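Can you give me the bound-state structure? Components:
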Amino acid sequence: MSVNTTGRVFRVTTWGESHGPAIGGVVDGCPPGVPLSTADIQPWLDARRPGTSKHVTQRQESDAVEILSGVFEDDRTGGPITTGTPISLLIRNEDARSKDYAEIRDSYRPGHADWSYDAKYGVRDYRGGGRASARETAVRVAAGAIARKVLGPEVVIRAALVEMGGDPIDRSAWDWEQRTANPFWSPDAAAAARWASLLDEVRKAGSSVGAVIEVVAEGVPAGWGAPVYGKLDADLAGALMSINAVKGVEIGAGFAIARLRGEDAADEMRAGNDRAHPRFLSNHNGGILGGISSGQPVVARLAVKPTSSILIPKRSLNRAGEEIETRTKGRHDPCVGIRAVPVGEAMMACVLADHYLLHRAQTGRAGPA
Amino acid sequence: MSVNTTGRVFRVTTWGESHGPAIGGVVDGCPPGVPLSTADIQPWLDARRPGTSKHVTQRQESDAVEILSGVFEDDRTGGPITTGTPISLLIRNEDARSKDYAEIRDSYRPGHADWSYDAKYGVRDYRGGGRASARETAVRVAAGAIARKVLGPEVVIRAALVEMGGDPIDRSAWDWEQRTANPFWSPDAAAAARWASLLDEVRKAGSSVGAVIEVVAEGVPAGWGAPVYGKLDADLAGALMSINAVKGVEIGAGFAIARLRGEDAADEMRAGNDRAHPRFLSNHNGGILGGISSGQPVVARLAVKPTSSILIPKRSLNRAGEEIETRTKGRHDPCVGIRAVPVGEAMMACVLADHYLLHRAQTGRAGPA
Amino acid sequence: MSVNTTGRVFRVTTWGESHGPAIGGVVDGCPPGVPLSTADIQPWLDARRPGTSKHVTQRQESDAVEILSGVFEDDRTGGPITTGTPISLLIRNEDARSKDYAEIRDSYRPGHADWSYDAKYGVRDYRGGGRASARETAVRVAAGAIARKVLGPEVVIRAALVEMGGDPIDRSAWDWEQRTANPFWSPDAAAAARWASLLDEVRKAGSSVGAVIEVVAEGVPAGWGAPVYGKLDADLAGALMSINAVKGVEIGAGFAIARLRGEDAADEMRAGNDRAHPRFLSNHNGGILGGISSGQPVVARLAVKPTSSILIPKRSLNRAGEEIETRTKGRHDPCVGIRAVPVGEAMMACVLADHYLLHRAQTGRAGPA
Amino acid sequence: MSVNTTGRVFRVTTWGESHGPAIGGVVDGCPPGVPLSTADIQPWLDARRPGTSKHVTQRQESDAVEILSGVFEDDRTGGPITTGTPISLLIRNEDARSKDYAEIRDSYRPGHADWSYDAKYGVRDYRGGGRASARETAVRVAAGAIARKVLGPEVVIRAALVEMGGDPIDRSAWDWEQRTANPFWSPDAAAAARWASLLDEVRKAGSSVGAVIEVVAEGVPAGWGAPVYGKLDADLAGALMSINAVKGVEIGAGFAIARLRGEDAADEMRAGNDRAHPRFLSNHNGGILGGISSGQPVVARLAVKPTSSILIPKRSLNRAGEEIETRTKGRHDPCVGIRAVPVGEAMMACVLADHYLLHRAQTGRAGPA
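Here's the bound-state model for the whole set.
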């Protein structure tokens, strides 16, 4: 199976390097008849776009997406709809200052993929991290926008930054409205204010901080997923861990559930509106039981490490194996976790769309029996 | 792609329910010429086997594995070696007391897969959890034993329980020798003693506790993995999250890295014995950079929830949608995390063997360039 | 992707060698709720079974299939139904006379897989052809029986032998009833009589003959398949060519269509009972247009070579590379094409079931828009 | 698994419609360090390009390929080499006269994919056949050029037209040099002369003819392939059958082998230069035994039907289900088989490259044991 592809029947393949002519991807397996134009994709890309505040990289990219295939005019509406054939997405690289990277051509930035890529391939496009650049995630966001259209409006996927540099939000202050009112996707206005100060300090120090992101999908019916390897949570874990700089993934209560007693961890059930929609008294399991969605909100969290591209010199090696000190002078994000928020949403959307279609394949239904 | 299969070129497919006649699996893509008999597999199964101490389920299973295909006598040694064709593994179910489960036939145990399976399939083998039973992991352990043989003796994979019921080990007391000297896989003798008391209390209370497992693979050369979706850490996350009751996965420092500054998270490099083997001054990244192994030990952690099968009654529903109280009277593990330790090792072995072969496919090499 | 697996969402993995303890397979992705017991499978296996007439190998195998997982009692009927989890199939090898093969242990039978397996793996289970034995096809037939249940009674799949030893049937005499009235699956009684004489002569000469099989699937709705690589005909070609000894596959008119003019090859359309069911005036395209079913019968043909296991000595090499003469003394089929008829049906069934579920995944429908 | 992707570890995904802005594809799994520029690809595209003689469609396309990712400058030579990351290929559509197709917007051309696409998707890009257009094969040819680079110069893949309109070549006159000396890829000059006259007549009549293509790969070592579903011949059959208008595939003697006796079909072996390279006295099996290459030339044939786009009116239906007469006025190939010759070579190259890497994955070797 392709190492640059994710998904089983709703499949996303991406390609492209940070400083090549373009990045892009192919979405295969999309159902036909889904209204889709660049207007459905662009807003999500704009949310991830660099250069939008002083807190993120100043690289200027319009990130304008082109749809090169897989859509055609609807007989009835005249508007563009998917045809069921592969959807090719293309985003041009515009502000690629490759000279910024000339000095890392022959050196390995600690914590970055420079060394491991060289060890694997013996060659790498060092400019801006090449294939290892977070720029690749723009294509994920575009694919995620298509996945949302497949899922329909009843599945609502939102992510928020819940911790930055070790400073968590106050969960009792959670307000989804807040998260678009600050540059950090924080659902807690007070935390956002603290983080603004923190990032100013971090940026001046030439340093970086990590973050924790929570992704929540509401409206997922019970029944999506599979019992063993193709579990919904296993696929989510793989998809979220595949995002650049992510080092941890939790479902529901995550590591905290390992500290609960069985009687406290159980999500008790009461009768809901109908047999297919029970009411749960808690959601420690994050909406997934035995690899299959329970009908509760699907909740995942991901830990994003501080970017390895910092101005502070660190000990390392060059390609000749000689000991050096290195630092990265290019434009970078003091907290890559911020721009990873829309990416986390996109991966959630892609995994859910895939399992929706898989569930439909096996059962002929969209939801529970 | 199959939902009951894991891996890309070293592929493991499992089948079987807890109370059916047998469980088993097929390992496809194994290289030819690998010495393999049941003696290579059985010790790992014995390590996972139920009924070995009072701290785990008292179900009695010999878990004797049969190899039904894929091996043949070596011309030279006369001993059995793999032939490169699929290896079929079979383990009979012996002590399946199905009547224990008769009363959960029509009820959903909270936190268990009962409800979600019914929602998906409209039918389920309720006996012992059916396909959702941790019994399936015996086959993973058998497959992992084969993966170890593929990896060879230089790759050493060991896991340990590092926290039980919220009580962590003292990492400064870590002693790999200790972990087989106690029934908990604890590398810290003092923690093991505390956990023994804890589990006595938990068992008497009819309750259960969670655990955290750490899996370490030493001897993995730099270069295994892939840049984007088929990342070594993404595949590990998926494989580990697919283990029953796991709700969180970390690589290296995991969630803790999100609280470090960039300069503290960087794993600095110094010259090693040769260019292909640099020396790292820390391992916050858990041996994986940009989805590709760095040559450091690969380190992952998984959070295991307290088993949902407890004697304490909890509110729930039956299949008719009526509100009930339910408790599980069968034989269960007060801490399923204990028996998940060999399973974590097995999944690490399978993922590494798969990426070893994939790396060899793409580069023609076993290790770094 | 597994080399011992076929299918995308309805997936069949097989394992086993001719003279090992057993052969078997795993069917994954089967919809839940399908009534399934061994009684649904055994008749198809009996049709393929060796030793049923003097015209096929005299190896005695009961080919009794066991279902080890994936079925459970239906709440309502009490009868066994599929649960949606993997179905494990097992068939014991009984009459494996391995000593027959001792003398080919170190020699390569020309036209057989002996040499190529050794070249690939450096080791092989030489007994009865090991993994290369046509015995593996018993599992395909069992899987095909499950696929038929998934497809339902409206899809009728039948195959016939249409040529043996260069002697074709008279197509104007085609009578489906006839094919079970003779030991050759011939739809033409007169051809069957001629073939009986032919095979007597061939068997006495220690020789073998080839055959051509036609597989027809009626009741396939329009819309199954895909535009490019996952075409219905491409998947059929791969699946049929994967049957032992098959060297050619045709769809519809096959090679003969290359001799027609465009105006003669076109399958003209007239209005049918409704828009979704047009009437075609011919079926040169074998029910598949652009990789997608048209609603006409799906028609494929496969060419089966004469078995390479013959009593007539042929020049060859031994494993040491020395020139020898070799002949095969075991029990063999003078025309393996006969027993390949149920296998061709089975592969057609598996490919159709897979595309039925894939179509349902992408469109939410079972048939045409 | 993606329906628009072919291959297991060397994977090709294509996208694009005949009259969209562009067509393209992604090649994933390519080894690093392979010298690759557009100059390595363009000659093969030029060989497939329309408008090169009066015997093929007059659509004018420069078919200039762009490489958008996956290559970077070699440290040593400065020239472009593959990096091991996905290679994105893009070819712009230039001379897309969509108005030619306006009248088929609402009608189904018999023998074409119009009806079956509509049945599947309920929507289609009717312009030039959309995704069903042979234009997609340009991307296959580009991918095949990369596959050739992976295989290296020792594997030589060439195809020839061996029959057109029912008129076969004289195989005793086969001369590989001839095939580029005529516009038909004929290895027999006399046949080419006859075909030129035939096509003049066919074109004037507004009709079309079919063809048979033979693809030969020399230099393939013994050992590539797999025993059961992932057989080299099964994958070849699927890949070749996936080419537009192909209705039959043969390996080696193909259907003719079904008319031979076992003793005549056997490819006898004699000692070659060394144990790994036996000498065969014939090649009825087309270089593949038991799904694995034998070291002989790999030989496949494909039957291409006459194009369904003809000027002669045929009975059909429109989208409303009404009976009509239809004919296709656009620019078409009187014999699409001609331009399919480079496509057959490309698919052979892709399948071989894939199995080369798979063999390397499982055995660590490029060739025989």
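A couple of observations. The first helix of chain A runs from residue 38 to 48. The first strand of chain A starts at residue 5 and ends at 6.
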